[in-house]
Design a protein that fits this description.
heterodimer; A: 172 residues; alpha+beta; 6 helices; 5 strands; B: Aldehyde Oxidoreductase, domain 4; Aldehyde Oxidoreductase, domain 4; nine-stranded mixed beta sheet; seven-stranded mixed beta sheet; binds FE2/S2 (inorganic) cluster; metal-binding (chain A); 2Fe-2S-bd (chain A); iron (chain A); iron-sulfur (chain A)
Chain lengths: 172, 793
């Protein structure tokens, strides 16, 4: 039995320490905003934030979490609320709101990881250039974040809009 | 309308002819306080079947293969329920365009379209593959128009106002100072509109509405043309959507299938499952179908890997390796008995046109993967009574249902397929199966527990179908003025589709017929059609031919899987349009003409003239002959080039320009800018169409630069994203999409296909423009570009 922090909550976990976070989140904790894509750290569908850093849940055993909190797309509204010092997570995270405003997804399966990566970027770099966004989603992690549907143009627009919403400190 | 003889029950029996449909039912208005509907139901077998229907609903059940209630139901609370057997594949058409089409014809606000039920074999009407969605949008348009007309007939009787004096706006029917909403009209009613349909529920083309109601004039549209949001996006980005991989059932086991070493191997001995190391896991074997199951998914993954390492499979070498693909296709062209198909535009005696200047060239298109970002996953629940519930992501659930029933030897009624959102796989399941569904069913039957089969990345790369390769021999003869005098093309490739269930093949269970020249089942054929529409109407002599054949490995034995083909986004037209358009650009080069102007000189349709002219400005096209005056085929300095391509698909007109830079020494190609101009007719939703086109275009750039399936004598050798790379965001060019709304043509435009096919020929032509060397093979990988430069040095 170990304890991990997921989306602001302490969760007890039975899985063996070598189990990748992906399976623990989905099957044991019912946190579904993280998707299986390759299991090989090649695509980014399974990205979560570990502390402030994007990692691939498919290759991160729970023993490697070192007590750092995990945030998935499901926990983004709450992350935003706590960053803004608000009590409740009443609004969406600006990245989620921007993804709706810009109608970013095609099928949407890659967007969980895309939104996590863009959140990581904007928390560190609130006014990114096109180049910053491209690099974040291509070269900054263990692999590029892949989108089969070709939604990259929409993602670029979504990321810029999210940056604006974040600056305004509001999302809905 | 007949007054009931019984005085105590003031019911009205309706039986009204509405443009070939029949409005039927019993009105008990005044007896019921709540509820009331008008539902569209089907009479299979076309117009004559409508006449045979009697008012009993039981009888209607028998006539409607899937469900008693058809596409549309209007409810007394003024909402409208839409049911469609089509599924959403990420292009949002069923949630946006379909709702817009129906709301427009019914003349209700879009907000009244509150619910869309899609792709469940027990709850939705119509079948067929999920492609050409807006062509089938015509079905919905007609059903909605019939529903509107039926409601007007009812209202005329209720309000005692002649039908001709009534009209509908915003969900309210009015005329002669009287008005009634749909909801008020239907309160307490239980009415159905029996609509004649024909077709076959489970076959690729599905069902067709067999009536011609008056359609709302395009000029009166208020909802079509609006940038409506896709309502399925918000639940997806907030994590509320239940995706196919998220579905669970009590007692469910996680399975990983262990696929054979090659596409034709049989199992000699399974590897050992170490019970100490994996206490919860169990090994299951059904013929050559091998799987490990466990209540714990991670245990299933690890145990399957360890068993796979110890498996012994028979050797099989029935494939040509991918580097010998061209030879194989040439051999197939002479040895395979599949007949040649002629193009529809063939005219004149093209082969015998004599000329002093001609292009003769061969173009090779590789195998492509659909390559969804998540591999296939399905959950099956085989129950004691022999029924099976299958939870999956399929573009054609009705045909999947039929194939599962065939595999099990059971009635189709015993099989229910429910579909959920999943990773976009662009046509792979248009015949029903994308992989994993049948395996889940067989394992669930064996174990009498719900079983979830999740394919791993390597299963998806190596065991799914692929978009077939093509080799095209093209000859273009120029006359003295440098105009095309004759065009001759011969396209050779395996048939488009093999929908046999791969798990059933491995398990030795019944499957649909293998593709052959004689197979007439669905799209199962080795025959290759001319799918690219000829557009250069002024060319006097044209001969286009397509020669199909068996897929590699297929002839070894009927149960050998082999390298199965499957349609993929813009199927076959991609493979035929790309060589044609590269060849046209080469012919322009030979003629010393600007390739954009060269196209203008040869098209006859004014819609092409308009979009090509528009492309010239939007793309900042340089009006000059190709190759570029700065073209270079050596050195490490980047050289620039421009290229153009056009396509006609489903009455949509497309033109595309690519601007690239090439480093001749390394063969590296960078796509700088893509411009697409599209005239697709009536634009239903400009916002979603723009997103579809942008995304399609980038998939096309991916196909142009990177995509090619590699295989050896037995197996697909690409196992993951390193073996089959796709476009990354860093490589995204600047993108410009111009949509010219053209309501005069009266047809809804398609956006989810075509855009992906335009990039390859435009980019290849741009590389030719930059280097001055012919490029006759995609993808434009550095090594192929270097080889092309060297070949023509
Ligand atoms: S699933 Fe983890 S990177 Fe692909
Ligand atoms: S939106 Fe489908 S994979 Fe990215």
């Amino acid at each position: 039995m170990s304890t991990i922090v997921v989306n602001g909550q302490q969760r007890k976990v039975k899985a063996s320490p070598d189990t990748p976070l992906l399976y623990v989140l989905r099957n044991e904790l019912g946190v579904m905003g993280v998707k299986f894509g390759c299991g090989l750290a090649q695509c980014g569908a399974c990205s979560v934030l570990l502390g402030d850093e994007e990692v691939r849940a498919c290759v991160t055993p729970i023993s490697a979490l070192e007590g750092k909190p995990v945030t998935t797309v499901d926990g983004l509204p709450q992350r935003w609320a706590s960053q803004k010092g608000k009590m409740s997570a009443g609004t969406l995270h600006p990245v989620q709101q921007a993804w709706i405003d810009e109608q970013v997804p095609q099928c949407g399966i890659c967007q969980f990881g895309m939104m996590i990566k863009v959140t990581e970027l904007l928390e560190a770099n609130p006014k990114p250039t096109d180049q910053d966004i491209r690099e974040a989603l291509t070269t900054s992690g263990p692999s590029p974040h892949l989108c089969r549907c070709g939604s990259y143009a929409a993602i670029l627009e979504g990321a810029h809009r999210a940056a604006k919403l974040m600056m305004q400190g509001e999302s809905a | 309308m007949i007054r009931s003889p019984s005085k105590s029950e003031a019911k009205i029996i309706y039986d009204i002819n509405v443009h070939g449909a029949r409005l039927m039912g019993v009105s008990r208005r005044g007896f019921l306080t709540a509820g009331g509907t008008l539902a569209a139901v089907f009479a299979m077998g076309g117009r004559s079947a409508v006449a045979r229907v009697n008012a009993s609903k039981a009888n209607l059940h028998a006539h409607s293969a899937a469900t008693v209630n058809g596409w549309i139901e209007i409810l007394s609370d003024n909402t409208v329920l839409l049911r469609t057997g089509k599924c959403d594949f990420g292009q949002s058409t069923i949630y946006t365009a379909y709702r817009q089409i129906v709301a427009e014809e019914l003349c209700v606000p879009l907000e009244a379209m509150t619910e869309v039920v899609s792709g469940d074999t027990d709850r939705t009407p119509d079948g067929g593959g999920t492609f050409g969605l807006l062509r089938y949008g015509q079905n919905l348009r007609k059903v909605a128009a019939l529903m509107r007309e039926a409601s007007l007939e009812l209202a005329a009787r209720r309000l005692a106002v002649p039908r001709a004096n009534l009209s509908v706006r915003e969900g309210v029917i009015s005329g002669a100072t009287k008005a009634i909403s749909y909801g008020e009209l239907l309160a307490g009613e239980d009415l159905h509109l029996v609509i004649p349909i024909s077709g076959d529920l489970t076959m690729p083309m599905g069902l067709r509405v067999d009536a011609d109601p008056p359609l709302k004039p395009v000029k009166d549209y208020t909802i079509i043309g609006k940038p409506v949001f896709n309502p399925s996006i918000a639940p997806k980005v907030t994590g509320k959507t239940v995706w196919v991989g998220d579905v669970t059932l009590p007692g469910m086991l996680h399975a990983r299938t262990i696929h054979p070493a090659t596409l034709g191997s049989t199992l000699i001995a399974p590897g050992k499952l170490d019970g100490k190391q994996f206490p919860g896991a169990r090994l299951v074997r059904i013929g050559n179908l091998l799987a490990v199951v466990s209540p714990d998914e991670w245990e299933a993954v690890q145990a399957a890997q360890s068993v796979a390492d110890g498996c012994e499979w028979s050797k099989w070498e029935g494939l040509p390796p991918s580097e010998r693909l061209e030879d194989h296709l040439r051999m197939m062209a002479t040895e395979d008995p599949t007949p040649v198909r002629d193009g529809r535009a063939n005219k004149g005696n093209a082969s015998s046109v004599k000329t002093t200047r001609e292009l003769r060239a061969s173009y090779l298109m590789p195998y492509h993967k659909h390559a969804p970002i998540s591999p296939m996953v399905s959950l099956a629940d085989y129950r004691e009574d022999g029924s099976v519930w299958l939870h999956t992501h399929s573009q054609n659930p009705q045909h999947l249902r039929r194939m599962i029933a065939l595999m099990l030897g059971s009635d189709e009624d015993k099989v229910v397929v429910r579909t959920y959102p999943g990773a976009g796989h662009y046509g792979r399941s248009n015949g029903g199966s994308a992989g994993s569904e049948d395996e889940a069913v067989l394992l669930s039957r064996e174990l009498r527990r719900p079983v979830r089969v999740q394919w791993m990345r390597s299963d998806d790369m190596q065991w799914s179908t692929q978009s077939p390769a093509m080799i095209s021999d093209i000859r273009i003869a120029l006359d003295d003025a440098g105009r095309m005098a004759a065009y001759v093309a011969s396209h050779i490739g395996p048939g488009m589709q093999d929908d046999r269930l791969v798990g059933a093949l491995l398990a030795g269970m019944p499957v649909i017929p293998a593709p052959s020249p004689a197979t007439t089942y669905g799209f199962q054929s080795t025959v290759l059609n001319m799918s690219d529409t000829w557009v250069y109407g002024t060319v006097p002599a044209v001969l286009e031919q397509a020669k199909g054949g068996a897929h590699p490995g297929q002839h070894e034995a009927t149960d050998v899987v082999g390298l199965r083909s499957h349609s993929m986004r813009t199927p076959i037209q991609f493979q035929q349009n790309c060589p044609r358009e590269i060849a046209i650009s080469e012919a322009a080069m030979l003629a010393g003409k600007d390739p954009l102007q060269f196209r203008l000189d040869h098209v006859s349709d004014p819609r092409f003239v308009a979009i090509l002219e528009r492309l010239r400005t939007e793309a900042k096209w340089e009006d000059r002959p190709s190759p570029s005056p700065q073209a270079k085929s050596h050195g490490s300095d980047p050289v620039k080039g421009q290229g153009v391509s056009i396509m006609l698909r489903d009455n949509g007109y497309w033109a595309c320009a690519a601007q690239v830079t090439v480093i001749p020494a390394s063969g590296e190609v960078k796509v700088e800018r893509m411009t697409i101009v599209a005239d697709v007719g009536i634009v239903i939703n400009p916002l979603q169409l723009r997103r579809q086109i942008q995304a399609g275009c980038l998939m096309g750039v991916s196909q142009a630069l990177h995509e090619e399936l590699s295989f050896d004598k037995g197996a697909v050798t690409a196992k993951d994203w390193t073996g089959y790379p796709i476009l990354t965001m860093a490589e995204m060019p600047e993108l410009k999409v111009v949509i010219t709304d053209n309501p005069t043509v009266g047809i809804y435009g398609q956006g989810s296909e075509s855009a992906n096919a335009l990039a390859s020929p435009a980019i290849a032509a741009a590389v030719m423009d930059a280097t001055g060397k012919p490029i006759r093979r995609i993808p434009l990988k550095p090594e192929y570009v270097r080889a092309a430069i060297k070949l023509h040095a």
